[in-house]
Amino acid sequence: MIAGQGLGAVGSAVGEVCFNTAMTGYQEILTDPSYTGQIITFTFPHIGNVGVNDDDSEVSNLAATSGVRGCILRAAITEPSNYRATRHFDQWLKERGIVAIAGVDTRALTARIRAHGMPNGVIAHSPDGDFDIAALKAEAAAWPGLEGMDLVPEVTTGQSYTWNETRWSWLDGYKRQENAGVHVVAIDYGLKRNILRCLVSAGCRVTVLPATASAEDVLARQPDGIFLSNGPGDPAATGEYAVPQIKKLLDTGLPMFGICLGHQMMARALGASTSKMHQGHHGANHPVKDHTTGKVEITSMNHGFAVDRESLPDDVVETHVSLFDGSNCGIAARNRPAFSVQYHPEASPGPQDSHYLFERFIAAIEAHRQGG
Q1: Cα–Cα distance, 15 to 18 (Å, whole number)
Q2: Do residues 331 and 267 make contact, with C-beta atoms less than 8 angstroms apart?
Q3: Closest C-alpha among 232, 244, 217, 240 to residue 282
Q4: Which domains are seen in the chain, by residue range?
Q5: What are the residues whose beta carbons fall under 8 Å from the beta carbon of 195, sequence distance 6 or more?
Q6: How does pLDDT run across 116-153, given as a tens digit for each residue?
Q7: Closest by Cα among 266, 268, 264, 295 to 281
């Protein structure tokens, strides 16, 4: 048991405890639907010091599920010090129902996770300091863990919608793009807003469909390309209903691009397998090598499952690899215009090392439209 100072929402939160090494972007991290079912330990000690705003959230509805179960901090939250801040981080945590605890030796906790893997845990916040420790321990022990868990229904959209907002720029902020060229249907397994912005900025008109959309639903929108989004949970569990539809879409020959969970499920649809990782990859400083160019990118990652390289069939090539642990970070089909990556090219850790992937997707769409 670790004691600290409670912050954010009052109550308890149970989930898988992971650590994130990013020094910035805590608001984007805490609103990333891929963190559903997890409690984040931030290795950077000063979290919350620039406050929060409404633009940097990765889910569009402030009242929507946060995804993340809770967060663990080293230092107490200070007053916000940034011209873009609209409110205090602690207030924002309360609004989103996120339980937090500060004053924890996060270096020691991170070392434990690194050595022993991501444990199930519970954090609790009670203003009167009255905790039923036995009940909290039982809650953590009873939580089943992420293996075999389909968490996508908690974060996917309930209905289809279109998106035309572009990436943020220093001079103009966010803009709306009209008269876009190609039409992309994005399947939402826990989609981040900035992925949509990157697709639009690359020249796409985007229609978003729920995770339960059938191949027929997708094709009825007459897309030029198909995007498989990031998301939480076990790809094998979500894949029970998603992979058969992805297989049908792959068979059409339409260009397809996947990120994170979308990468894992594309791999499964192509015949590969996935497995749970020891400590996962969570941070904004992960070097990845692109075998197709020989270049190394600094990437943002958030995943606890990975594609098994040894399981890749002969008609699938490994395109990207982690330079931290050698795990698979990208694939491409040899005989159809489909590719995917494990990391988040929209998250700008490099800051723009990986934006070429959206351009690669558009090039594949244009080649397909021209019969190439």
Answers
A1: 9
A2: yes
A3: 232
A4: 5-142 (3.50.30.20), 152-369 (3.40.50.880)
A5: 186, 227, 229, 230, 259, 344, 346
A6: 999 999 999 999 999 999 999 999 999 999 999 999 99
A7: 264
Q: Return the number of other C-beta atoms located less than 10 Å from residue 138's C-beta.
A: 12
Distance CA 22, CA 3 (A): 24
260 is catalytic: yes
Active site residue 346: yes
- Determine the residue type at 182: V
> What CA–CA distances, in Å, run from 179 to 81, 169, 201?
39, 20, 12
Q: Which helix (H) or strand (E) holds 298?
A: strand 296-307
Tokens found for residue 115: 């050595």
Q: How far apart are CA 151 and CA 34, in angstroms?
A: 9
**Is 344 a catalytic site residue?**
yes
Contact 284, 26 (CB under 8 A): no
> Is this model's pTM higher than 0.85 or not?
yes
- Pick the catalytic residue from 260, 263, 282, 329: 260
φ, ψ at 258 (rounded to 5°): -130, 150
Q: Which of 28, 329, 346, 355 is catalytic?
A: 346
Instruction: State which amino acid sits at residue 38.
Output: Q
Dump pLDDT digits (tens) for 237-267.
999 999 999 999 999 999 999 999 999 999 9
